[in-house]
Design brief:
Oligomer: heterodimer
Strand content of chain B: 15-25%
Structural class of chain A: alpha+beta
Strand order of the largest sheet of chain A: 2-1-6
Radius of gyration of chain A: 18 Å
Shape of chain A: elongated
Radius of gyration of chain B: 18 Å
Largest interface: A-B, 40 and 32 residues
Distance between the termini of chain A: 43 Å
Helix content of chain B: 25-40%
Order of helices and strands of chain A: HEHEEEEE
Chain lengths: 119, 219
């Protein structure tokens, strides 16, 4: 439900980076969305479509990369990607509690592809 | 010619900056700030009414009330004698740093020991927006089901405390305190869990003791 405000933040950052790097026209923006970020990728895509209907980012592709949850076992430290987020036994020692999250909470703009003026 | 520029910028960076400034402000003024989150109706306001009344003599406390509409909760909280300010998000699903800045500017923060922020009732969006708080506190009522920490993992992962409220209803609902605790601890082994009934006034002592410790740690 808050994805529209997230898209607005993405648009603000892209505009800033466009000026900073002297980009002529932005072609594609890549965003990494972690499985636990709280943002739904489909809703982000829809928000992007809504907020880029006009203006300088019209037609720009939003490329959303879904980042799976990766944890380190709370008991033996083994790193693994749980198959099921609801029950995550460690493949090495079968511990199910107290895992540390290594990745999956992030939501960030990874890269921007743009046309640049001819040198 | 097209080229790709690596950016790596957090989408929530603007809010994170605000949260950082708020955290600095709370540190300088030695105010313990707690962000209360739950679904609508889990008992955030009831918990505040109890806490503000029972600890009135010990701490100077104030409340920022976040709601989509109405000032019902601010009035309930103010009836305990504590200072309260209402923030209406007009449909927005969470509080963000700028709303807290505005709320603080109208509160009298002098000599305040504890500031409670009652977030908008929602188990998803508020979890993403830091408000400069010392701790996030989540409240789950037993009528909601013991699988909620499993369904909303981020909320319970980032909380220092989970209160399991409405324990007076346990005989009437299928809720296992152990199952709820186990789900919450999967990704948060240090979470403190307190079963309480705000209605009956039961089980609140461990919560108050935790508050006292958190308050001492802030000084």
């Amino acid at each position: 439900m808050h994805e529209l405000s997230l898209i607005q933040s993405i648009i603000d950052i892209v505009r800033e980076e466009r000026v900073k790097h002297g980009m002529e026209r932005v072609v594609r923006v890549r965003v990494v969305n972690g499985a636990l970020s709280g943002a739904v990728s489909d809703a982000l895509a829809f928000g992007w479509e809504c907020l880029t209907q006009d203006g300088e980012l019209k037609g720009v592709v939003l490329d959303i990369v879904d980042q799976p949850l990766k944890v380190a076992c709370g008991s033996c430290g083994r790193e693994f990607v749980p198959e099921d987020r609801h029950c995550m036994p460690c493949p090495a020692c079968e511990e199910i509690l107290g895992h540390d999250i290594l990745s999956g909470k992030e939501l960030y703009i990874d890269e921007i592809e743009a046309d640049t003026p001819e040198d | 010619m097209s080229k790709t520029v690596t950016i790596v910028r957090n989408v929530l960076e603007a809010n994170e900056r605000r949260a950082g400034k708020l955290a600095e402000y709370f540190a300088q003024n030695k105010i313990l700030c707690l962000n209360l989150m739950s679904s609508p109706g889990a008992g955030k306001t009831s918990l505040l009414e109890r806490t503000l009344t029972d600890l009135k003599g010990e701490f100077k406390m104030a409340v920022i009330e976040g709601d989509l509409q109405t000032d019902n909760d601010a009035r309930r909280v103010a009836a305990t004698g504590a200072q309260a300010v209402q923030v209406n998000t007009e449909g927005g699903c969470h509080l963000d740093g700028s709303m807290i800045e505005d709320a603080i500017s109208v509160l009298d923060m002098t000599g305040l020991d504890i500031l409670f922020i009652e977030n908008v009732g929602n188990l998803v969006c508020p979890a993403e927006f830091n408000l400069g708080e010392d701790h996030k506190v989540s409240i789950l009522s037993v009528a909601e089901g013991d699988d909620k920490p499993e369904k909303y993992p981020l909320m319970f992962h980032i909380s220092s405390v989970m209160l399991l409220n409405k324990t007076d209803l346990l005989p009437y609902v299928d809720f296992s305190l152990e199952a709820a605790a186990a789900h919450a601890r999967k990704l948060n082994k240090d979470i403190q869990i307190f079963p309480v009934s705000c209605r009956a006034g039961e089980g609140l002592t461990p919560w108050y003791d935790w508050l006292r410790q958190a308050r001492v740690a802030k000084k």
